[in-house]
Amino acid sequence: MKFALPYLIFLGDAQADLDAKTAFGVRDWRPGACVAQWALAGGKVDLGLPALAPAAAFATGARSLLIGVAPVGGQINPKWIPALVQALEAGLDIVSGMHTRLESVPEIAEAARRTGRALHNVRHSETAFPVGTGQKRPGKRLLAVGTDCALGKKYTTLALARAFQTAGHKATFRATGQTGIMISGAGVAIDAVVADFLAGAAETLSPANDPDHWDIIEGQGSLVHPGYAGVSLGLLHGSQPDALVLCHDPFRTEIDEYPGFLIPPLATVIDLNVQMARRTNPAAKCVAIALNTSSVSPEEGAAILRDHEQSEGLPCFDPMRSDLGPIVAGIVAAC
Amino acid sequence: MKFALPYLIFLGDAQADLDAKTAFGVRDWRPGACVAQWALAGGKVDLGLPALAPAAAFATGARSLLIGVAPVGGQINPKWIPALVQALEAGLDIVSGMHTRLESVPEIAEAARRTGRALHNVRHSETAFPVGTGQKRPGKRLLAVGTDCALGKKYTTLALARAFQTAGHKATFRATGQTGIMISGAGVAIDAVVADFLAGAAETLSPANDPDHWDIIEGQGSLVHPGYAGVSLGLLHGSQPDALVLCHDPFRTEIDEYPGFLIPPLATVIDLNVQMARRTNPAAKCVAIALNTSSVSPEEGAAILRDHEQSEGLPCFDPMRSDLGPIVAGIVAAC
Fold first, then answer.
1. Over the Cα atoms of chain B, what is R_g?
2. Nearest-by-Cβ selection for B198 from A230, A258, A279
3. What value does the mean pLDDT of chain A take?
4. Tag placement on chain A: N or C end, fewer CB within 10 Å?
5. What is the DSSP letter of A265?
6. How far is it, in rounded angstroms, from Cα A125 to Cα A145?
7. pTM of the model as a whole
8. What is the spatial distance between Cα A331 and Cα A231, in angstroms, rounded to a whole number?
């Protein structure tokens, strides 16, 4: 997928960083592609980029507005519509990861026609996917699984893919969500696939490859998430992972925005994922735990990693802080 | 949904009864709505209805051609196109449960325009579903789960819904597949929902109800199916069943059309379904096993039921042969 670069990152009136995970993902992994941020009145998220409205952003070089907010349900908020029209009128394309197609909003469709700007719906694939076959494909695969949404599966797999490559292994990051696609330029937004073709889309995403090539596959949701577990299971079956990496936020005790839904013990979540994964790859195993320790000091983070290594009996790492060389070597040796 | 009745059932060139399960379902549960069948050259399926081409069927009263074939992937076979055009030209509407929309085939769209006939795509809902919330709703719910696809989940729930009603309980059959929708006139084809909204669609299908009302929910696929397990899990989480009924074909040892994928022991499949169901309804339990014994004599079928009752320790029944009164009474007492 080709988008006009660089981006003005649109933050809507998001109140919390977790609501703008697309914005942070693109800023962190495509920093050269981000020149400015733009929030609506009342917005509280700050990426640390210059704050510019569309016309000023265009003048400094921006060529697309990227919707950096990720609301539950993926709908276009009516409050955004005047802002998106303003961006088109300033000369910017729009790059969106919403379920709602941009052109389905009449004001946006009309403004795009009038200004000649492009509308990109990253979440929608034009591919017709097959039903999953369960047939084993050559090549090694690693999949991030989680105790919840939005706790580091994308960062973990982006960091691991880079570390695999740095260590001299053939490895490809496979995006399964809109932000990952915006970062890597390819992939399938697995949660937007028609349900019957979930496993088939996951099979298509990591096709047969060299026996020593690693697909590092971004995870989605969680098998214990009341809303999204179906997506997670289709992705798990279709990915046929040899290696699972469990991603967890050590400060989260219940599912985000689902009060009362406690996160089970990590060993329970690991056992469940391994059991389900073995249906399509009997060799599947959990090889490591990725912990998001970004909210504490490096020393406290290191202590959390040590504690979890002892209690869980698996290598633990923070994808943004740990030396990933030994983690990669351990994974390759284990599979 | 309103369709012009009665139906001419279209069988394509299906070779096996299992490939025409829509046709058998509608024949068995809406017998008064089916006046004739029509197979292409080489077709081997026989519903026992008069074999009539579209013009003759129209002359005997047929007003819609219903596509009774259910191919994997749900695509419209190019071989069917001239036949479907012929049906429109004979004055019949078309009722389809395919993923492919009828109007996306240019020849069919053109013929429908020219003849003024209606095209019904039962698998597609116009509803925008929410993300699943996991919030418990009042009312009792029963969900059929399975060891595989196409072994009796629809027949089991249709028969149970009728038996609940006969026993004086408030009960509603909730269709989750195209054939169930064609039979009952309402429902959601859950496998055609965008994956992010799987659990939310299932929640929408059986909304809050009287505490003593039973939703009897048609199951889809299986948690151990390599292609469709994601659909099954989203339906399970969103349905929040109090009662699970496991549906099984006692003569099937591996997943149909997935050679090498053995069906696990029934107790394993039950444990897996109950474990997952308890995420959204901690009271979920498996209350009975429905066995499809249609391929053997009534005496042999009864022996199979007795054997399974002993080995599995649960009430076992054949939905088309057993007296369901005691089964219903047992389910109500257990929940």
1. 20
2. A230
3. 96
4. N
5. P
6. 23
7. 0.94
8. 25
Helix (H) or strand (E) holding A23: helix A21-29
Distance CA B186, CA A98 (A): 29
> What strands lie across the sheet with B93-96, from one edge to the other?
B34-39, B7-12, B64-67, B93-96, B119-121
User: SS3 helix, strand, coil % of chain A, rounded to 5?
Assistant: 40, 20, 45
Contacts with B131 from chain A: Cβ below 8 Å: 72-73, 227-228
Question: DSSP H helical segments within chain B, as ranges?
Answer: 21-29, 54-59, 81-89, 106-115, 153-166, 178-184, 198-205, 229-239, 266-277, 298-312, 325-334
Please tell me the distance in Å from B24's CA to the nearest CA on chain A.
22
CATH fourth-level superfamily of A7-121: NAD(P)-binding Rossmann-like Domain (3.40.50.720)
- Residue A222: what are its φ and ψ, rounded to 5°? -165, 145
* Residue A270 amino acid letter: I
Tokens found for residue A241: 């992972």
The β-bridge partners of A121 are A96
Q: Residue B90 — φ and ψ, nearest 5°?
A: -85, -5
Q: Which residue do the tokens 């196109």 mark?
A: B81
Q: Where are the domains of chain A?
A: 7-121, 140-334
Specify the fold of A140-334: Rossmann fold (3.40.50)
Lookup: tokens for B265: 């022991």
Name residue A308's amino acid: H
Looking up tokens 């907010």 gives A69
C-alpha torsion angle, residues A272, A276, A277, A279 (rounded to 10): 150
How far from B222 is each of A62, B125, B150, B235, B316, CA to CA, in Å? Answer: 49, 23, 10, 10, 19
Question: Predicted confidence band at B2 (pLDDT cuts at 50, 70, 90)?
Answer: confident
Tokens of B153: 């989940």
Phi, psi dihedrals of residue A201, rounded to the nearest 5°: -65, -40
Chain A closest CA to B197's CA: distance in Å? Answer: 8
Residue B127's pLDDT is what? Answer: 83
Task: Indicate which of B228, B256, B281 best probes the interface with A, i.e. most A CBs within 10 Å of its own CB.
Answer: B228
Radius of gyration of chain A (CA): 20
One-letter amino acid at B166 equals: T
Shortest Cα distance from B191 to chain A (angstroms)?
Answer: 5
Instruction: Provide the CB-side half-sphere exposure for B79 (13 A, CA).
Output: 12
CA distances for B137 relative to B126, B156, B160, B173, B239, angstroms: 24, 24, 21, 17, 10
Q: Nearest to residue A215, comparing CAs of A179, A191, A186? A: A186
Percent of chain B with pLDDT over 90: 94
Of A99, A196, A233, the CB nearest to B196: A99
Interface with chain A: mutation pick from B98, B125, B196, highest number of A CBs within 10 Å: B196
Q: Quick one: tokens of A184? A: 């890597």
The pLDDT value recorded for residue B128 is: 86
Which residues in chain A show pLDDT less than 70? none
Query: Using one digit for the tens of pLDDT, what is the confidence trace for B116-143?
Result: 999 999 998 878 899 999 999 999 999 9
Domains A7-121 and A140-334 alike in fold = yes
What does the pLDDT look like over A241-263, one tens digit per residue?
Answer: 999 999 999 999 999 999 999 99
